[in-house]
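User: What would this chain look like folded?
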Amino acid sequence: MNYRIINKKGKYNVILIHGLFATSGYWLSYLDLFRDFKLLIFEIDYLDFSSFEEKIKTFEKIIKNEFNNNVDYIFSHSLGTIIANNISDNIFKFSFEICPIYCSTRVFNTKFANIIVEKSNSLYSVDIVENILLQIDKQVDLYKKKQKKSSFRIVFIPDNDIYFKYQNSSISSSVVFKGDHFDIKNALFEALKFIK
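Assistant: Here's the prediction, encoded as structure tokens.
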């Protein structure tokens, strides 16, 4: 798994975890919000279909090597929230999990696949995206049962997500933000209020 560290002299150790069909570049338009933080940004290949358990072990190894298991904040999006939700509570102070897949159900599957194809500039066909989603769903279902609730985690639910329906009853602490599954800037603003 690849990763990069940005702003090594930042005040806080922060991890950024992107979602499925995204890359570490997903965070580029939000980097100005994190200018005071030392960032560990992961490049995750979710399409290798290895288990989330393996990915989580790899994450924790990198976190130990780079941050000596001393993470202030984790920011994760969509499928990345499963990884964030399963990182040991002993490693970080607070996790902000945006559009969490572990407590949601996807609706409008074909519409979601179409938007992924559109956003990826036709790297994938709708059929391929739908097949990948089916493969990922099998692993996600396993982790829905393992969801961790703690006072160290806050879930951010968009007020306008037409692709996912969230089950609030399974969430210990949540904030509704103005945005959708792909526009998370307001969620980040809300999360950063907790830090200041």
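The radius of gyration is 16 Å. If you want, I can go into more detail on any region.
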